[in-house]
Design goal:
alpha+beta; Ubiquitin-like (UB roll); four-stranded antiparallel β-sheet; two-stranded antiparallel ribbon; 14 helices; 8 strands; binds zinc ion; Znf_MqsA-type; MqsA
Length: 334
């Protein structure tokens, strides 16, 4: 990308470097790897809004990780699970009118607020809260909310599915999951996206496409898309416990694997069972998936495996180890 450098006094080639930067988040110094655009000729730093905001998101997420705080998106999910508006949710909690909106938009929540939100994530706790507190909601809103709590408690998919997944997939953001709790819904949308785009998509290739999508999105935005962890296996980086996820996707009629034989080779093909859901992936996420699809569309499973073997993160880890998203900074697809 070309940009104007004031020192050189003309349009110059730019490059992106990584350096440590310290940000003050809520009175605490947080060191992050910041990506900065500089003039390729004289090294002068050039302003780049996207990189700056990605770095800031990184710093905030690092702060949240240190203090085990919910991410903005997780707060939104808790509210939506109860079908409440931002205003009603704030009212229910006896918080200021705009508090929930600020948190969902990225302001760091205070610790007491975080504890209450974590507690209320469980429907049975919401019932307790409603019975033990004088809440400022209208009577009919309370009735409706209790009804939603009932439904959530009866919904065995919600309960069993969540507990089962919680055993294997962390909902707490950390470096291993790209600072994002595991998001089954987004992962399903990613799998469907690739399965619909590429006819005869094989499982081995899908695993690499997911890995590159999460890593590149993380590199550019400071968060992964799916919250998957990726492990180092002999044939490249693969999502941790992936067969378990594929089992659930088959049970949910999202997609399943069909085995066919090509000579003596056993091929595992991904067969989609529904359309890519609307509104699950953001425009930015779809843009990254499209870029990854385009980059690798003519690669076979073996080629993409070989390609992934040269990545720093893969080479720096041993078989079975989780590959940190920090290595995403070294991935360059051009
Ligand atoms: Zn310059």
């Amino acid at each position: 990308m070309m940009d104007y450098c004031e020192v050189c006094g003309r349009e110059v080639e730019t490059k992106i470097i990584t350096r440590k930067e310290i940000f003050n988040v809520c009175g605490e110094d947080i060191e992050v790897d910041a990506q900065v655009m500089v003039c390729a000729e004289c090294g002068e730093e050039l302003f780049n809004e996207e990189l700056d905001s990605a770095t800031l998101i990184n710093a905030y997420n690092e702060y949240r990780r240190r203090h085990k705080l919910l991410l903005p998106e997780e707060i939104r999910k808790i509210r939506e699970q109860y079908g409440l508006s931002q205003r009603s949710f704030a009212k229910l909690l006896n918080w200021g009118d705009k508090t929930i909106r600020r948190y969902e938009n990225g302001a760091v929540q205070d610790r007491a607020h975080n504890s209450l939100l974590l507690f209320l994530r469980e429907p049975e706790n919401m019932r307790t809260y409603l019975t033990e507190n004088e809440v400022a909601l209208e009577e009919k809103q309370v009735v409706k909310l209790l009804d939603t709590v009932d439904k959530l408690e009866q919904d065995t998919d919600f309960r069993v599915g969540r507990r089962y997944f919680d055993l294997f997939f962390s909902r707490i953001p950390c470096e291993e999951n790209g600072f994002k709790g595991f998001d089954y819904e987004k992962l399903c949308a990613m799998v469907l996206f690739f399965a619909h785009k590429s006819a005869g998509l094989l499982k081995t290739k899908l695993m690499k496409l997911l890995n590159y999508s999460d890593m590149i999105f993380y590199k550019e935005n400071g968060l992964s898309i799916s919250g998957l962890k990726y492990a180092h296996l002999p044939y490249g980086p693969v999502p941790d416990n992936f067969d378990m996820i594929l089992g659930k996707m088959a049970a949910d009629h999202i997609a399943h694997i069909e085995v066919f034989y090509d000579g003596s080779y056993e091929n595992h093909q991904v067969v989609p069972e529904c359309d890519v859901p609307e509104g699950v992936l953001s425009d930015e996420e779809i843009e990254v998936l499209t870029r990854i699809y385009e980059k690798f569309k003519n690669f076979g499973s073996a080629e993409i495996s070989n390609y992934s073997h040269k990545e720093t993160g893969y080479n720096a880890t041993k078989t079975g180890q989780i590959i940190s998203y920090a290595y995403a900074m070294d991935i360059n697809l051009n």
